[in-house]
Description:
Keywords: Signal transduction inhibitor. It comes from Hortaea werneckii EXF-2000. This is Developmental regulator flbA. The chain is of the alpha+beta class. It folds into three domains: about 30-160, Arc Repressor Mutant, subunit A (Orthogonal Bundle); about 185-205 and about 215-280 and about 290-310, Arc Repressor Mutant, subunit A (Orthogonal Bundle); about 340-500, Regulator of G-protein Signalling 4, domain 2, CATH 1.10.167. The chain contains 17 helices and 14 strands. The protein has helices at about 25-40, 60-65, 100-110, 135-150, 155-160, 185-195, 240-250, 260-270, 305-310, 340-345, 350-360, 365-385, 390-410, 425-435, 440-475, 475-485, 490-500; strands at about 1-10, 20, 25, 45-50, 50-60, 70-80, 80-95, 115, 130-135, 200, 225-230, 240, 275, 300. Strands 3-2-1-7-6 form a five-stranded mixed beta sheet. A five-stranded mixed beta sheet has the order 10-11-12-14-13. The protein is globular.
Amino acid sequence: xxxxxxxxxxRMTEDDRPFTRGLQCSEQDFKDLFSTLMVSLPxxxxxxxFTRIEHTFTTEEAITNLGSLKFSQSNxxxxxxxxxxxxxxxxxxxxxMAKEMARSVCMRFLEARFVESVEGKTDFNxxxxxxxxxxxxxxxxxxxxxxxxxxxxxxxxxxxxxKNMMQLVILERETETDKLVHxxxxxxxxxxxxxxxxxxxxxxxxxxxxxxxxxxxATGLIGVRMQRSRRNDKEAPYVFTGKAxxxxxxxxxxxxxxxxxxxxxxxxxxxxxxxxxxxxxxxxAGTAPRFAASKHVxxxxxxxxMRIAGWVTSPNxxxxxxxxxxxxxxxxxxxxxxxxxxxxxxxxxxxxxxFREYLRETHCEENLAxxxxxxxxxxxxxxxxxxxxSPRLDIIRETLASAYSLYNAFLAPGSPCExxxxxxxxxxxxxxMTRAVGEDEQMLKSLDEVAVLFDQAQSSVFKLMASDSVPxxxxxxxxxxxxxxxxxxxxxxxxxxxxxx
Length: 501
């Protein structure tokens, strides 16, 4: 049996962010911690005011389990050298934390809208308080279970319930810093979902846009709650409250921190997609307007915002005013090079976000997920190679554990998200991953070999997406207009020209 172990002792930074081994806990680590906790809980029914609520848990259960949380991921396969022998590769991740730390982490789950109180509680001070997962929390748990092949009865019952309808916007993050990407193009892609790409989500009564219910955006497929401007402003006829915007961005995206909400909302303002409305329209001289998450502050969709959302079209069919249909293809460049298209999509956060949504709709998202995760793994590998601090072997062991986690999820025979890769490469991976890792310097050699094979697997998946998914994505009517606006063909041709020059 191959067994890789990763143990993490979580602490809090001064600004209440979890961190491990001196590093801030990434957004993915945070979601994995949440999902691991949910899988560990019985999620039974609890009585609240004479009613039994299914799939719930108490404060005491959550804090107790967070004290020592273990998650194992295993895969059984025939030994490539001896098919009569079964080899099991297992990775075990252990989170441990003190009681007050566990309480703080639970509060972070609440603030991130992963869970909500059944009783209207706002903290985890009462041991008997009852909590349930929000649609956002269920979506995150569902992705975790799918990736790791978890099929526990109590979890399946929750995820099979009608409440699990959320389609979160999977926001792009910078690999090195884990910060949200909010360049103009990516902000515009997010804004289309925020505004509602089928038109404004209008409510008859103005008070409707201030609802406190998380079920307002249970599917994530409708835009922020809006109302018509009472001023009959033709330039900005649709308004919404700061609170409604905050709720949508927190409920419908993979945001985990309220600071990220303000970043995104201020990006909408900076890109002139929304403007303060009503009495807030006039900002003090010399200052830029800043977003306020208040139900008493109104914001309006600008004309530019309405064009970006697709509610109105610009005269030449391009939001940026530069039609792409007449662009000349440079000599020597193959116009329909899907490899070049794929390279541009992978490199462009806005296009990558759209491509991910397309792959999710066509049930192929695991290909992009693997590509991105391997990119992070290889960056982690390079850092481990450069690191000369002590204990270096612990860092290498952690990196190897990440590799086994990836292998068990995507590459091992029968894995939950098994990818379609070359037979010889699959055998080479199986041979390496089922072989003993060794200790000390041998461990680094093993990691080197694993990194080479993962790089090859990543290239294989890249080619598969380029040949199979990219052509269909490029032709999909739902995304055609956005691809024209992003000028995919022009970007592709520029890339190809640079490659052959």
